[in-house]
Amino acid sequence: MPSLVTLTNSPRSLSAAALRSPILRSPIHRALLTALVTALGLLMLLAAPVTRAQDPTPGSLHTSPFPGFASGSGKIANLAIGSGHDDARALALQPDGKILVAGYCSNGSDYDFCLARLQPDGELDDTFDGPSGNGNGKFLLPVGSSNDYAYALTLQPDGKILVAGYCSNGSDYDF
Description:
Strand order of the largest sheet: 1-2-3-4
Low-confidence stretches: 1-19
Largest sheet: 4 strands, antiparallel
Helix content: 10-25%
């Protein structure tokens, strides 16, 4: 029976006894076990109760207004970025409290990646500009020759923004 092993992203972190285990000899099995342990850790983190001082009763639906965010309503309605249908697919919170939103938006003839950055109070951050140097908090980012769909967003430790999705090259889709 193999002993319980703490896994990290490095196979060197596994003990010699664990590596002799028939279950963990294969790199694929080690990778799957690492992914499983990571997923279980995330589930435990997400299942942990979260309370804030302004919650009337921990775990109850918060129906009162959110002071200081989106004029107290707690929601942002009608954040138009493109000229038609806009679809948000990813969010990231910057260390300074600003909120990044990525997705795909209509440019009038097809879809492009689109990004927006909101201040902690929910207002557009007018200092956030696209590669062209303009945007005032929101912009379209054409990548392929036709439809481009952003589905993922993350921040690097140096603050650079990474956006991923898929794009049309005219005959099929690539990432």
